[in-house]
Amino acid sequence: MRLLRRGYLIESLENRASLIERYFHQFGQDPVDFLELVGEDNWNGYWQRLEGIHQDLRAAQEEAEAMRELIEARVFASARAGG
Question: Is the pTM of this model over 0.70?
Fold first, then answer.
């Protein structure tokens, strides 16, 4: 029932399951070892850059929240002052 609330219909799920089964039949079910394919330096570099992006996004969000609070305080102060 939970899936139905999210908009997934039974027919849609059955179709998705069929697509996954066809994929595994065509390409196999062995997991891909991306680390082996791209090399350790590339792999680790990617994850380090991604972590840096996440840190930048968190910092930007904190800055945006601080600016929002400042803007709200000044707008409400101005409104209270009749301006």
Answer: no
